[in-house]
Fold these 2 entries.
Entry 1:
Amino acid sequence: MDNKKDFLDQSFRDSVATISKEGKRNYITPQQPKGKLYDLRSYFSYLYLIIFFILPFIKIEGEPIFLFNILERKFIFFGVIFWPQDFFIFAIGFLTFLVFVILFTVAFGRLFCGWACPQTIFMEMVFRKFEYWIEGDAHQQRRLDAMSWNGEKIRKRGFKLLVFFSFSFLIANYFLAYIVGMDELLVLINEGVFLHFGTFSSLIIFTFVFFFVYLWFREQVCIIVCPYGRLQGVLLDKNSILVAYDYIRGEPRGKLSDKVEDKGDCVNCAACVRVCPTGIDIRNGTQLECVNCTACIDACDNIMDHIGKPRGLIRYASENNIAHKEKTTYTSRMKMYTVVLFSLITFLATLLISRDDVSVRIMRTAGQMYQRQEAQKISNLYNIKLANKTRKFIHLELKLENIEGEIKMVNAINIPKKSYYQTSFFVVLKTVQIKKRKTKINLGVYQDGKKIETITASFIGPFI
Ligand code: SF4
Ligand code: SF4
């Protein structure tokens, strides 16, 4: 441990910023950040919000580009429809995403939380901005809090509740649009509440959940609920890049006027603490509560400009970067994750490329033995279940591959686009061909004259 770190008071570990001494919730009222990074994050979040609100309207061949219909087990990613039959691809896709997240976190810490997490974007860039607009900055909010319920307080608080609820309702609608599709949502809206009471109830529940989260629960989502936040302890190491305080340069801290020997650059102004949405002091080191929102970087840079010191006392840096002035390195841990990630990406790409347009399952009809037919023939009845994963109509044919015989379809295999289909068919063989009780038959599945799959089934004959 570096000597400089010994200056740090460890008493912060005895308490949680969002819990008071009495065990009650400490409601954090951060000051509005101002600075280059806050502006950049604002622009980034506007882009993110535009994409979020536009995506449900974008379609490919009449289908949304993204859909997460858990109820009907239908998922669309970048216009490609996935079915429950593609579960394996899903599982590998999820695993790939997980390894990507791990690698990204090992290298860049919680960069995602600060810049791209929907919770941070909606909280800090939408609801918090509404709050600053309606109630003013932190000190004005605290003043309003302390006021008795006079006209000003009722007006401001009432308006805030109305704006928060309306926006929560809007997000809930979009949330639903990502599940059922925008077209379906518009149909539900047009047909009215009474015809779709279940869906409307879900919409209201979503609305109240968002309202509760953004009005009251806020940073607790990141601190208590988010599993990603809790994983940081095992994922981060001394080479991970985080929002960090340069204690080598900053300590020993003290006011400009303080007569401290070898005084560091931190003037102990607490500007970095005042802007923190999770209420922590970054000078205490990396903490679970830090969502890497960069507000403290901006706050400290402004102070440094003011006192004529170089910016970057709080900056994106790794522990080794600060303590030993080491450059950021591509560690062997990162290399190992990269190898795993590329192997998974290759496997996933192979699965996606070789993914069938149609999934076919053939089973002998349960409870049926064999049927004797005219002209010394025997038949077996089979069920065929199909899923057309494409946006086009598909016609299939079956052919016997390894034995002479006939296939008599109950219905032709015409599968409408994006649909499940099932029918039955008979396989008819001559009795002389049957040498044992179970004969293996290969059924070729043909689409437009081209074989797409061979399925093996058993043909039951008389007991010989
Ligand atoms: S410590 Fe800094 S980066 Fe971390 S949450 Fe607080 S303000 Fe954001
Ligand atoms: S804003 Fe900078 S100077 Fe002020 S207390 Fe924080 S680290 Fe120290």
Entry 2:
Amino acid sequence: MDDAVNVSTAGDRGDIVIAGAGYAGLHVALRLTTKLRHNPGVELTLVDRHDCHQVLTELPRVAGGTRAAEAVRIPLQDLLAKRVRFIQTEISGFDLADRRLLTEVGPIGWKRLVLALGSRPNDFAIPGLAQRALSLYSASDAERVWAATMTALTAAAGATDPERQRRLATVVVGGGGATGVELAGELAEMLPEEASLHGLAPDRPAVWLVEAGPTILAGSSPQLIN
Ligand SMILES: Cc1cc2nc3c(=O)[nH]c(=O)nc-3n(C[C@H](O)[C@H](O)[C@H](O)COP(=O)(O)OP(=O)(O)OC[C@H]3O[C@@H](n4cnc5c(N)ncnc54)[C@H](O)[C@@H]3O)c2cc1C
């Protein structure tokens, strides 16, 4: 009940609400904390579904088993000054007329809203992809990729036919941008050793990187692409 009262009054005094504690939202919260240090009357509220900032640039390592997921989840309470009020909740919509965020814990009013909810992976409407592929957009996603890879190796180790082992131990990465290339590289380095630990020949796993364009890392220097 106390929480509900607190949430419904957030922003009522004409304060700043930041939706999303990713790179943009967190940066804004930290910058405004500094800029508004002489305006203690302005309340800063940060809203996110997670209570941690996720270092997305490190996800390929988590997905490739070389970094723990916990290492890329930074608790927001360690980053934010006391004056920033953090509310962990799912944002479900916007009431633009009344200037309120609609959330699981009730509406949060704003005078000024900073919208920083990020983006979603694009499956380019390829049939079946969203249902069958794993995405790499959060620490939990990355954990699922690594877990699925280990499950695949276990299944491959249980097969006797080398061709079937190879098929089961093959990882297909869709998209030859920076994330896809990084993930394919991490897996290519890790899989031989992991295969041995599973009782498979080290050269049994394979990694395929699939890209529709003429090169990987489009727009990068030729040296990097090579
Ligand atoms: C795997 C990966 C690797 C990357 N590597 C690089 C790199 O090396 N270099 C680089 O420059 N960029 C990289 N990027 C891109 C970079 O991470 C993004 O450009 C950046 O995260 C965008 O910041 P943002 O604040 O707009 O969104 P995000 O960082 O995605 O933050 C959005 C926030 O909003 C929250 N949120 C979303 N919807 C809701 C909701 N309904 N309710 C509550 N909270 C919600 C999320 O929890 C999240 O905290 C990478 C991205 C990925 C996925």
